[in-house]
C-alpha cells in the first residue's frame, strides 16, 4: 500500500519516542518536522534516531534534539521530470520534500514514483463544463479547478493517474481554459506531459474525442470527467478491457434510492402486499470509460455527440461495449452538497 506523505509529519513538540513509533508503524524510514503553518522545520531519518540514542538523547526529549534542522528540500518550480528521476534513481534519494513559497506541499516518495509500471495509454480528462450548479463558486473558476482540500479537483485526478504509472495526458477545455493552462502548463512540474484540445462550442460528453490528434496512438485511452473523485483500480480496469477484447468499456456505479412511502402491490383492485419504504438499486454511468481507437475515430472533427449515444452507436454496428462495475470510492461533484462532502472525504482518501 502506498504511503500518504502527510502521515509522515510530526510537530516540533513531538517526542523522540513518538517519532520512533511513527516511523516504525509506517515503515517510512523518515519523518518530517513541520510547524503549524506547514513550514519544514527538520527531517528525522532512522539514522538520525540511532545516532541520537547513541549520544544519550532520552526518548522523552523533543524530536528537535535529534532532527536535521537543515534538510535538503526542493522548490516545486525547479523540479522537472528529469530532475526528479535523477534524484530518485541516480542519487538514491528516498524522499523529496517539495516546497511552494516556503510551505511543504508534497513529499515525492521513491516507492510511489518508481513502483507503478509505466503505462503508455493516454488519459483524456474532460474539463470544459460550466459547473452551473456550483455557482457562485464557478463564476470565475472552471469546476475542475475548484479546490478540494488544498488542491484543484483536476490535480487530484491527474496525480492519481500519475501515481498509477500514466504519463500522457490530454485535457479538453471550453469554459475559462486559461485557468487550467496557467496551473498545469505542459505538465512538466507534475512529472507528466499534457496536451490540450479546446472546444470552441460545447460538443457534448464525447465530441471532444474528434479533436484528439492522431499522436494519441492506437492503445485504448482512459476517458474521465474532470469533476470526479475516485479510488478506482485503473490497472484492473485496463486489464478487464483487454481481457474482454472490447471496443469500449463503460464504468458503472451502483446507485440506490429509497422510496419514502409504502409501495403497494395489488392484483387488480385486490391488495396483495405492501413494501414499506423499499430501496431500489440501479447501475448508473460513472463517467469513466476505456475507448478503443475504432470508437474514438467514429467521432468526426467538430461533431457534437454524447457518450451514451456514441457507445450505443458502437453497439449498433456490432462492436462489443463492456461494462465494468466500480466498487471503490466514487463521487461526482455535481452539486454543492457533493462539493462539501468532497472536502470531508479528501483528507482520508487523497491526502488533503
Q: What tags apply to this protein structure?
A:
single chain; 352 residues; alpha/beta; CBS-domain; Spore Coat Polysaccharide Biosynthesis Protein SpsA, Chain A; 2 domains; seven-stranded mixed sheet; three-stranded mixed sheet; globular
What does this structure look like?
The strands form six sheets. The chain has a seven-stranded mixed sheet with strand order 11-10-7-12-17-14-18. Strands 1-2-3 form a three-stranded mixed sheet. The chain has helices at residues 16-26, 46-54, 81-90, 110-115, 153-163, 177-184, 234-243, 293-297, 307-316, 336-350, and strands at 9-10, 30-34, 40-45, 74-75, 95-100, 103-109, 123-126, 147-148, 151-152, 168-173, 193-198, 221-225, 228-230, 248-258, 262-267, 270-276, 279-291, 321-325, 330-332. Helices cover 27% and strands 29% of the residues. The chain has two domains: 5-114, Roll (CBS-domain), CATH 3.10.580.10; 117-350, Spore Coat Polysaccharide Biosynthesis Protein SpsA, Chain A, CATH 3.90.550. It has 352 residues and is of the alpha/beta class. It has ten helices and 19 strands.
Put the structure in a nutshell.
This protein is α/β, with parallel strands linked by helices. The chain has helices at residues 16-26, 46-54, 81-90, 110-115, 153-163, 177-184, 234-243, 293-297, 307-316, 336-350, and strands at 9-10, 30-34, 40-45, 74-75, 95-100, 103-109, 123-126, 147-148, 151-152, 168-173, 193-198, 221-225, 228-230, 248-258, 262-267, 270-276, 279-291, 321-325, 330-332.
Q: Helix share of residues?
A: 25-40%
List how many beta strands DSSP finds: 19
How many helix segments? 10
Second rung of CATH, namely the architecture of the largest domain? Alpha-Beta Complex
Mean pLDDT: 90
CATH fold label of the largest domain: Spore Coat Polysaccharide Biosynthesis Protein SpsA, Chain A
* Poorly predicted runs of 5 or more residues: none
Count structural domains.
Answer: 2
Q: What general form does the structure show?
A: globular
Major sheet strand order? 11-10-7-12-17-14-18
Task: Kindly provide the name of the CATH class of the largest domain.
Answer: Alpha Beta
Organism: Chitinilyticum piscinae
Domain CBS: 1-59
Keywords: CBS domain
Protein name: Nucleotidyltransferase family protein
Amino acid at each position: 500500500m502506498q504511503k500518504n506523505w502527510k502521515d509522515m509529519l510530526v510537530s516540533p513538540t513531538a517526542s523522540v519516542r513518538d517519532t520512533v513509533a511513527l516511523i516504525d508503524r509506517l515503515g517510512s524510514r523518515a519523518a518530517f518536522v513541520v510547524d503549524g503553518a506547514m513550514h519544514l522545520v527538520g527531517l528525522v531519518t532512522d539514522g538520525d534516531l540511532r545516532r541520537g540514542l547513541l549520544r544519550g538523547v532520552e526518548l522523552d526529549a523533543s524530536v528537535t534534539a535529534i532532527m536535521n534542522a537543515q534538510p535538503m528540500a526542493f522548490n516545486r518550480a525547479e523540479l522537472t521530470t528529469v530532475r526528479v528521476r535523477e534524484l530518485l534513481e541516480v542519487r538514491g534519494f528516498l524522499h523529496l520534500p517539495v516546497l511552494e513559497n516556503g510551505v511543504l506541499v508534497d513529499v515525492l516518495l521513491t516507492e510511489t514514483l518508481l513502483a507503478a509500471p509505466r503505462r503508455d495509454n493516454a488519459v483524456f480528462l474532460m474539463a470544459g463544463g460550466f459547473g452551473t450548479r456550483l455557482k457562485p463558486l464557478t463564476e470565475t473558476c472552471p469546476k475542475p479547478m475548484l479546490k478540494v482540500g488544498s488542491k484543484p479537483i483536476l490535480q487530484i485526478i491527474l496525480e492519481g493517474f500519475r501515481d498509477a504509472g500514466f504519463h500522457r495526458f490530454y485535457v479538453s477545455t471550453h469554459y475559462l481554459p486559461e485557468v487550467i493552462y496557467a496551473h498545469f502548463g505542459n505538465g512538466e512540474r507534475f512529472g507528466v506531459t499534457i496536451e490540450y484540445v479546446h472546444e470552441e462550442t460545447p460538443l457534448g460528453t464525447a465530441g471532444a474525442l474528434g479533436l484528439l490528434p492522431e499522436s494519441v496512438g492506437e492503445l485504448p485511452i482512459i476517458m474521465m470527467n474532470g469533476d470526479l473523485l475516485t479510488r478506482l483500480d485503473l490497472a484492473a480496469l485496463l486489464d478487464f478491457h483487454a481481457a474482454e477484447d472490447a471496443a469500449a468499456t463503460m464504468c458503472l456505479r451502483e446507485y440506490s434510492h429509497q422510496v419514502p412511502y409504502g409501495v403497494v402491490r395489488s392484483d387488480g383492485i385486490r391488495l396483495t402486499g405492501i413494501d414499506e419504504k423499499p430501496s431500489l438499486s440501479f447501475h448508473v454511468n460513472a463517467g469513466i470509460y476505456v475507448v478503443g481507437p475504432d470508437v474514438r475515430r467514429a467521432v468526426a472533427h467538430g461533431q457534437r455527440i454524447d457518450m451514451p449515444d456514441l457507445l450505443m452507436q458502437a453497439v449498433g454496428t456490432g462492436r462489443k461495449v463492456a461494462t465494468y462495475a466500480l466498487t471503490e470510492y466514487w463521487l461526482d461533484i455535481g452539486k454543492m452538497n457533493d462539493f462539501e462532502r468532497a472536502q470531508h472525504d479528501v483528507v482520508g482518501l487523497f491526502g488533503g
